[in-house]
Design brief:
With 374 residues, the chain is of the alpha+beta class. Helix content is 40%, strand content 27%. Strands 1, 2, 3, 4, 5, 6, 7 and 15 form an 8-stranded mixed beta sheet that branches. It has a 7-stranded mixed beta sheet with strand order 9-10-11-12-13-8-14, sandwiched between helices.
Length: 374
């Protein structure tokens, strides 16, 4: 007999049982536990589980928050929605229950290793049903499944059968790294990009330091984080200091922070997750006043590519932002889909129209190109 349970803390679920549902995941029980402990403001966590007897057979992370509908809108569209929000406060905000996580790029839902692939669609449908009942108990009308990989037909069929609408979400950028050297990687780029990158790498070079503890520089890291966040149109959440320190502590040698120094001045940092298969870029923060002189973003990019080459890591997963640069730098893109529905039929009908305007590729040509490439 299968039973369904929603928990408010991951501590209610055994680490090994959870990880068995997500084999090979870097963002595993330890990562999610560190996120929970960080206490990200404005988010409450839910963990959806299916048990057969006492055995965990399927699981998904979920969260609740007040969601601003134009989170992924940029440029002219963003300025319009901000004006609209000033005139009609609260119009762009809805209370949201979402399967997935604000700090992972793709939907975290999995089944135990002994479960046959043919059983997965039915289990995903059960998780959706559990999310519906859990959201109803919490008084939340808008339910979403965040960042489902577009090749995941099981999720797509389950969501459509449950009456969910869909729209493109932010694609995940990835750089395969089959190169024997940085010079070989640069040689794979287009002529103008290759020339530009080599020119940038001749600029003054900051000192690079790989760290698994940043307690002594945490105020400076947070200063760079806040400055970078203020320049971003796409950031969904605001990460507290405990997120950065907790990830490094909880994941051990699977998480590092790369620090960039000019003399004794910290000018950039990059939090990354690492295993033998991939390097995941979680957040890059930098000092805008020095970015151009030291080409900090591109320097960091090459440092990460070089790390992958030296450690035989085949894939650099490099986030959901900066698509124009990432197209030039040779990335491929994994398309993601957002599924959603509202209990209220009138609001659900309005959202059908709103999504035509707020879909993320409508206002960003580079993002539209990244989505079309997939």
């Amino acid at each position: 007999m299968i039973t369904a349970h929603a928990f408010s803390s991951l501590q209610a679920i055994e680490r090994e049982a959870w990880n068995d549902c997500f084999p090979g995941a870097l963002e595993d029980w330890d990562y999610i536990m560190a996120v929970e402990k960080a206490g990200i403001e404005g988010f409450e966590w839910r963990y959806l589980t299916l048990f057969e007897g006492s055995t965990l057979i399927a699981a998904a992370t979920a969260f609740t928050t007040s969601y601003r509908l134009d989170t992924t809108v940029q440029g002219i569209g963003k300025r319009f929605t901000e004006q609209l929000n000033r005139v009609m406060p609260g119009l762009m905000h809805l209370h949201l229950y979402a399967i997935g996580s604000p700090v992972t790029e793709q939907c975290s839902a999995g089944t135990a290793s002994h479960i046959a692939a043919s059983e997965r669609p039915a289990l995903l449908a059960r998780l959706l049903k559990l999310a519906h009942s859990d959201a109803a108990q919490l008084g939340i009308g808008l339910i979403a499944v965040k960042d489902v990989p577009s090749h995941d037909n099981d999720w797509a069929h389950s969501c459509k059968a449950a009456g969910f609408q869909s729209m493109p979400s932010l694609p995940s950028a990835m750089l395969p790294v089959p190169y024997g050297s940085v010079d070989s990687y640069l040689g794979s780029l287009g002529k103008s990009t290759r020339k530009d990158m080599r020119r940038k790498l001749r600029a003054p070079e900051p000192r690079v330091q790989w760290r698994n503890n940043i307690d002594d520089v945490l105020p400076e890291v947070m200063r760079l984080y806040e400055a970078t966040l203020e320049r971003s149109d796409l950031q969904f959440e605001r990460l507290p200091p405990a997120y950065f320190t907790g990830i490094l502590e909880q994941l051990g040698d699977r998480a590092l922070c790369v620090l960039y120094w000019v003399d004794d001045h910290l000018v950039a940092f990059n939090l990354v997750l690492i295993d033998e298969h991939r390097l995941i870029d979680k957040f890059f923060g930098h000092d805008l006043a020095l970015s151009r002189e030291y080409n900090l973003y591109f320097r960091s990019w090459v440092v990460n590519v070089d790390y992958c080459i030296r450690n035989n890591i085949a894939l650099y997963e490099c986030g959901q932002a900066g698509y124009a640069s990432k197209i030039r730098l040779g990335c491929t893109f994994q398309n993601n889909t957002l599924f959603f529905r509202h209990r209220n039929r009138l609001i659900n009908g309005v959202l059908k129209l709103v999504k035509l305007f707020i879909r993320p590729d409508r206002h960003d040509p580079a993002l539209a190109a990244a989505i079309s490439e997939t």
